[in-house]
Amino acid sequence: MTSTVDHLGRPIVAVTGLGVVTSLGVGKADNWAALTAGKSGIHPITRFPTDHLRTTISGMVDFLPSSGKGNSALTEELAATAAEEAIAQAGLGKDFGGPLFLASPPIEMEWPDRFALYKGDETEEGYARLLSVARARNDRSLFESSQFGHIADALSARFGTRGLPITLSTACASGATAIQLGVEAIRRGESDRALAIGADGSASAEALIRFSLLSALSTHNDAPEKASRPFSRDRDGFVLAEGGAALVLESLESARARGAKVLGILQGCGERADDFHRTRSKPDASPAIAAVKAALEDAGLGIDGIDYVNAHGTSTPENDKMEHLSLSTVFGERIKSIPVSSNKSMIGHTLSAAGAVEAVFSFLTMQEGVLPPTINYDQPDPAIDLDVVPNVKRNADVGAILSNSFGFGGQNACLALAREPN
Amino acid sequence: MSARDVVITGIGLVSSLGEGTEQHWQQLTLDQPKPILDRDRFAPYTIHPLPQLDWGLQIPKRSDQRQMETWQRLGTYAAGLALDDAGIKGDEALCATMDLIVAAGGGERDVEVDTSILEQSQTSSDTGVLLNERLTTDLRPTLFLAQLSNLLAGNISIVHKVTGSSRTFMGEEGAGVSAIETAAARIRAGQSTHALVGAAFQTEHPDMLLGYELGGYLNRGDWASVWDRSGAQGGGIVSGSGGAFLVLESREHAQARGRKIYATLGRVAAAGAAPDEAQIAHMLAELDLSGPHLAISGATGVEAITRAERSALDKAGLIARGFTNLTGHLKEAQFPFAVALAALAVSHGAAPSPTEPSEAPFSGTLDMAVATSFGYRRYGGVAALGRA
């Protein structure tokens, strides 16, 4: 049996449970089947009217009981559904016994609730009316849906996690940050295990319009399943999507001691903030480059140690160009022989959940020895010289993966994932 | 004493009492400190308003100021004060390796747009279509960025060049507890050498008041002390605008830079769910206190939890200072503010004046102070601050 500490003498962090929900379905089996078949989960929006909208497609999760019941309810259900699957796979019971790190979207009271409150009185106007009706109704469920700490509290009670659960946002890198926080807690010896969840059920008309006003979304509305085109010349934005994923992180020592099946290793994490602009990356990609390098260094891996990159690959003109620049800078010529594919070509951008969803898919990639494709790759961008695993899955023996996440606000977080050491 | 002790070398404060450590300490040690209140602007709610600030002092570029609303400006400003105080501002190498953890809610919505849509909704046959029509034409594109929770951290990176890492925790008062607990744990474990941690809250916006009032938590009518709001109308909270940022460092890192240390941050104990008196007592016991000490309490004024906390403090022999009486409730910033004031008290070796008559005087030298924050709905934390 190999050592249970890493190259820096820290406890090695294993993964013993994985769970996922995306627009492709509930659970690893359905998602993996669709993902490797090159199937898209992007579809026309039905949750709200699309009149006047420039984008009318998304990767919303429309098949759960909480779908359409608001950000808080759906995010909680996505998180809980993924966590159930992960904890069951890990063979842990009702009392999880470690901390919870939840990546979830910022919470706001939503328009249908604002309209309903406004109907409650006619004596005052504007926010004064919302305040007086809110006070009179004292609707606990509406109140809780507006509290940033509520979802994690509910999940913590349900799964028996320990201590004050951390809810976090690093925008589109949130899911990766949740995993990183769990890894760090285990390395500090605070706990033998941690539950890291990324969940996002925040697709509302207002959310869509906000991204649309920043020209971030694809407007390829006519063929939704072909809208997300990472690394293609004609990519025109990301596709707003929902999803949830959960990972049971556990010290390798603890996992082996209880005879749990080890699904992989969270070998390294790297992050770096960008001080250039609120939505754009530094033109030389130096923060993303530093984040990738930091992840490799933390993992004790050189550029030859990575067999595949699970790209952030949003399908926005800017991200894919910057991501290519960062990868080609770090890996040099070798990047031409490392396959790089984007799950977002099929599931869209699951925002706060993305880093966790894509980490789950990365572990499945290693486990199954199959690279999910980048679909809709019909017009390669000549400026992006990458092997994107175009359109069709590919068999490959993958020992270690780099998974990238980049977000608004200069957030860059990268994870290095590997198979269990022999 | 150890090289990896967590010490506080920078404090940035803004509240209705003023800005900076000196103004705050001066106000807190007056014979009878007085809250600064605005009873009119959001009547029937009273708030503790922001002081006059010259944003340009900490956010030199007007273009940066324009990209933010008041919440982000306030946080960026308080963060700048802390960096200045620690002698880190403008030091590229130190900023580029500095970790950042911000506790955040959300930013301000556009009241005019919201109000106008609400009004129009009354005569609309399809509010969904109305919403699309109005939001696509009326929302300022960049307002989204002023609302995003992680963009306070983003602005701190842009304005102050803190780029070692950037994490935003959410979840009302508990987010402030986790931010400090996590930053300290990372330093203690050698995962980080220096970190900027804190939060800001801007209450002078009706949507921020609504966040409390959906649950009936705001006080109405006459102002009363947090320890005595049971007879007042409403739920117990009088909110305030303010921010608190701290520079935490390993002792070794601070000493190598030759910096003045305000205080050592000892144990931090946190509570999930909604703690009761027994749990609060247990958390205080975890701090290994000995002798009479001061508690800088972030008590909210919400009845049950405030009573439980006060009772636990009294039984532990801790002399309470409910600073919320003077600043108002600062939500995510409540715990960072409490830790900052406790560090200030320890560095002065003295306690702030009682904020109201039920708070006992503190005599003798102060060697240790406890910071507390228990949430109006859930979560909470306590920390022990000791001499440098």
Can you describe what's shown?
The complex is a heterodimer of chains A (422) and B (388). With 422 residues, chain A is of the alpha/beta class. Chain A has two domains: 13-107 and 147-418, Peroxisomal Thiolase, Chain A, domain 1, CATH 3.40.47.10; 114-143, no CATH class. Chain A is built from 13 helices and 15 strands. In chain A, the strands form three sheets. In chain A, strands 1, 2, 5, 6, 7, 8, 9, 10, 11, 14 and 15 form an eleven-stranded mixed sheet that branches. Chain A has a two-stranded antiparallel ribbon with strand order 3-4. A two-stranded antiparallel sheet of chain A has the order 12-13. In chain A, a hairpin with a 3-residue loop joins strand 14 and strand 15 (411-418). In chain A, helix 2 runs parallel beside helix 6, helix 7 (174-187) crosses helix 13 and helix 10 (286-299) packs across helix 11. The radius of gyration of chain A is 21 Å and the shape is globular. Chain B is an alpha/beta fold. Chain B folds into two domains: 7-107 and 148-386, 3-Layer(aba) Sandwich (Peroxisomal Thiolase, Chain A, domain 1), CATH 3.40.47; 111-143. Chain B contains 15 helices and 16 strands. In chain B, the strands form three sheets. In chain B, strands 1, 2, 5, 6, 7, 11, 12, 13, 14, 15 and 16 form an eleven-stranded mixed sheet that branches. In chain B, a hairpin with a 2-residue loop joins strand 3 and strand 4. The mean pLDDT of chain B is 97. The chains are: A alpha/beta (422), B alpha/beta (388). At the A-B interface, helix 3, helix 4, helix 5, helix 6 and strand 6 of A face helix 5, helix 6, helix 7, helix 8 and strand 6 of B.
Task: Name the biggest interface.
Answer: A-B, 84 and 81 residues
Question: Order of SSEs of chain A, N→C?
Answer: EEHEEHEHHHHEHEHEHEHEHEHHEEEE
From the N-terminal CA to the C-terminal CA of chain A, the straight-line distance is: 7 Å
* First-residue to last-residue Cα separation of chain B: 10 Å
Keywords (chain B): Transferase
Protein name (chain B): Beta-ketoacyl-ACP synthase II
GO molecular function, one term (chain B): 3-oxoacyl-[acyl-carrier-protein] synthase activity
Organism (chain B): Tianweitania populi
